[in-house]
Amino acid sequence: MKLKGIIFDVDGTIADTEEYHRLAFNLAFEEFKLDWYWTPKDYHELLYISGGKERFRYCLTQDIALKASLKDEEQFILDLHKCKSEHYRNFIHNGAIQARPGIKRLIAEALNHGIQLAIATSSSTANFLTLAEQIFEQNPKEIFKPIVTSDQIVNKKPSPMVYKCALAGMGLVAEECIAIEDTAAGNRAAINAGLNTIITTHTYTIDNNFDGAAIVVNHLGEQDQPFEILNDNKCDKSFIDIELLQSITTDKQASNHHKAYESEDAIIAK
Question: Minimal CA–CA distance to 86: which of 31, 47, 45?
């Protein structure tokens, strides 16, 4: 089947954002005078939970005293997340965050081939738009259609809902598309929506379980910056391009992307 669409995750996929998210979380905790601090090790564990507000809820279950002191827990979570997002967007405005290798090249190639592009992220719309405008220097709504974020989807990854909504917005079926992800939760969400997946790892996700992915690499690669393949799949390419994505889409043996998982809400095994 011909490749007609590519669906991108954002954080850790389009840009290596996760360390800046961690720093922004800690700045928000300091501003709120909380006795919370997320080390890189802590954040590595927390990334198995999709969404900042969901991580706050989890941490409140561990901080019984703080939880008991809150008059309105949900409002506290919303206010804390708003503060964190402001700090994160400051990093973006300061030019600290750039696109990962191969992202701009692949997007340009896809558009030249008439391939539709979409976003499926657990990030907020405001965070994504701020990041994308900085990286691509144009209105991201002219590049990605649709843009599906946590503002529209209640059930976060590993639920496949965000990918199903992206597919519906594109007017395409899963067999015509491919997802590019960076986490176990994202990989599982895309696979459970029927998609083949390309995984680009980074410091926080390199040890994740990416069973079922068509190919796992350290980044998408450039002609002068080849990727490193991190799973058992073979490839004669040195960077991810449309030709490779098309071969994955048409070759049903390229991945076991129809592998069933026990439950959408099961804990992701490391």
Answer: 31
* Angstrom distances, CA of residue 156 to CA of 112, 185, 267: 32, 9, 13
Provide the annotated active-site residues: 9, 11
Task: Name 181's bridge partners.
Answer: 199
pLDDT per residue over 92-142, tens digit each?
A: 999 999 999 999 999 999 999 999 999 999 999 999 999 999 999 999 999
Q: Is 145 helix (H, G, I), strand (E, B) or coil?
A: coil
Rounded to 10 degrees, what is the CA torsion of 122, 127, 132, 137?
170
H-helix or E-strand containing 128? helix 125-136
| CB 219 within 8 Å of CB 101 | yes
Distance in angstroms (rounded) separating the CA atoms of residues 134 and 97: 9
Nearest-angstrom CA–CA distance, 68 and 72: 10
Q: Is residue 232 pLDDT above 90, yes or no?
A: no
Q: What is the pLDDT of residues 67-90, one digit of tens each?
A: 999 999 999 999 999 999 999 999
Whole-angstrom distance, CA of residue 221 vs CA of residue 240: 6
Integer angstrom CA distances of residue 170 from 20, 165, 266: 31, 9, 29
In this prediction, residue 228 carries a pLDDT of: 95
Report the distance separating Cα 258 and Cα 206, nearest Å.
23
**What structural domains and CATH numbers belong to the chain?**
5-17+99-250 (3.40.50.1000), 18-93 (1.10.150.240)
Task: Check whether 177 has a pLDDT greater than 50.
Answer: yes
Q: What is the CA radius of gyration of the chain?
A: 18
